């Protein structure tokens, strides 16, 4: 990995380079995505069959697009029992964590007849996109579905591309069943997003779409936003590690590579105040890369978006981390909790040398669906909040309205809205 002295110029160059990874940079695919969406809107299941044959080489139609209970039972027979046990343990941790996020309706009343409040209601239906093939991650199924179940969503429809034989990866089906998915469909890509957003003969429209996917999926979610709600437009994965001279360089190198292996566009950055740590991490990263199965992807990721930044002080390191606003932030310092109090922008923060990023990906409980590409400055991890909506409650008695109605009338007339004023004053005509 390249070691760079951290200064204002190098920081600017790195921030500009990282922005090149944004899904917004790939609008050249938008025309194709819009064509697919329009075709699904007009041809419905027929279009889903056509695109699934074209992209996934599978013969899918309205008769076999929905995964059956028999297919789910088969998936359970194929999965390693020890893996099933881990899925269940992870699901328990994820549900326990997200249950603490639940919000409830509330009402305040006053003696004169004023009642104000907030009614919390779960979204009616949610669509969950799950990648297939080499990018099939049962952990993402758990992370996207369980918060929706905790929120009280009644209908959760999952879409995922089949293999050429029309089968869905067994781990994905088992995770979906364990998490509480109500229906599963064998369709992927932009066409699956279009089906969830607009509905077909086989797939009913949903109210919100969540889940990761390739650039076509990301742009399709962007295109249907407003017609339905979405979680976010996710970019490539990223990790940033803040380390001082107390850090173990092997641990740091291993953690950086854990994200670099996701994608050639993934970003892995170390900011350290120690030149010795910087040099040792670079050496260890090279050694690990040679041993790992996805070494080609890792190397391209590190060549394009991997950095070791040598900072003059911990304050400079923290300031840069807040500018980058990384999806995953590890703090491996003498006092990680003190550093954490100064972090303003990060998707998930991992404290101490035994809190490696994959702990959050799989098992700890907090969600691994996180803001990327600097959006941690204004977005949060996926949570129960993403699956609820709130309604304001207002109730006034005549006794409560009478002393304040002239103020409302005056305000309305000041804005030139006489019908608003009349709606209030008519209640107090002689």
UniProtKB/TrEMBL annotation:
Catalytic activity reads: L-histidinol + 2 NAD(+) + H2O = L-histidine + 2 NADH + 3 H(+)
Q: Where does Zn(2+) bind?
A: 259, 262, 361, 420
One GO cellular-component annotation of the UniProt record comes to: cytosol
Q: Name one GO biological process term.
A: L-histidine biosynthetic process
State which Enzyme Commission number(s) the record gives.
1.1.1.23
Q: Which NCBIfam families match?
A: hisD (TIGR00069)
Q: What is this protein called?
A: Histidinol dehydrogenase
């Amino acid at each position: 990995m390249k070691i760079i002295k951290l200064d204002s110029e190098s920081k600017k160059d790195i921030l500009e380079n990282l922005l090149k990874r944004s899904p917004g940079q790939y609008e050249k695919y938008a025309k194709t995505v819009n064509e697919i969406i329009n075709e699904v809107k007009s041809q419905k299941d027929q279009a889903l069959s056509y695109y699934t044959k074209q992209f996934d080489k599978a013969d899918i139609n309205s008769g076999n697009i929905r995964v059956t209970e028999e297919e789910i039972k088969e998936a359970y027979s194929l999965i390693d029992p020890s893996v099933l046990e881990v899925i269940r343990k992870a699901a328990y941790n994820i549900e326990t964590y997200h249950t603490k996020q639940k919000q409830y309706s509330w009402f305040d009343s006053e003696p004169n007849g004023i009642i104000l409040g907030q009614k919390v209601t779960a979204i009616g239906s949610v669509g969950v996109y799950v990648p297939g093939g080499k990018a099939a991650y049962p952990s993402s199924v758990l992370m996207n579905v369980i918060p929706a179940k905790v929120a009280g969503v009644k209908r959760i429809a999952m879409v995922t591309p089949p293999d050429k034989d029309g089968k869905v990866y067994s781990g994905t089906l088992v995770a979906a069943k364990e998490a509480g998915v109500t229906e599963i469909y064998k369709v992927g890509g932009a066409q699956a997003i279009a089906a969830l957003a607009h509905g077909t003969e086989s797939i009913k429209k949903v109210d919100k779409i969540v889940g990761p996917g390739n650039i076509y999926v990301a742009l399709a979610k962007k295109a249907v936003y407003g017609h339905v709600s979405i979680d976010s437009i996710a970019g490539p994965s990223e990790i940033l590690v803040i380390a001082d001279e107390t850090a173990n360089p092997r641990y740091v190198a291993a953690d950086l590579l854990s994200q670099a292996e996701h994608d050639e566009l993934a970003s892995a950055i170390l900011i350290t105040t120690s030149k010795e740590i910087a040099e040792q991490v670079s050496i260890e990263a090279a050694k690990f890369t040679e041993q790992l199965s996805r070494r080609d992807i890792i190397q391209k990721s590190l060549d394009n978006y991997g950095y070791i930044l040598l900072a003059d002080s911990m304050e400079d390191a923290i300031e840069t981390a807040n500018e980058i606003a990384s999806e995953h932030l590890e703090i491996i310092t003498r006092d990680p909790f003190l550093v954490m109090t100064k972090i303003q922008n990060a998707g998930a923060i991992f404290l101490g040398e035994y809190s490696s990023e994959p702990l959050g990906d799989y098992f700890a409980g907090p969600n691994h669906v996180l803001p990327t590409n600097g959006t941690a400055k204004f977005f949060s991890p996926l949570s129960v909040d993403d699956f609820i909506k709130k309604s304001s409650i207002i109730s006034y008695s005549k006794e409560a309205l009478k002393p304040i109605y002239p103020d409302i009338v005056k305000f309305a007339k000041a804005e030139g809205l006489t019908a608003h004023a009349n709606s209030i004053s008519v209640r107090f005509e002689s």
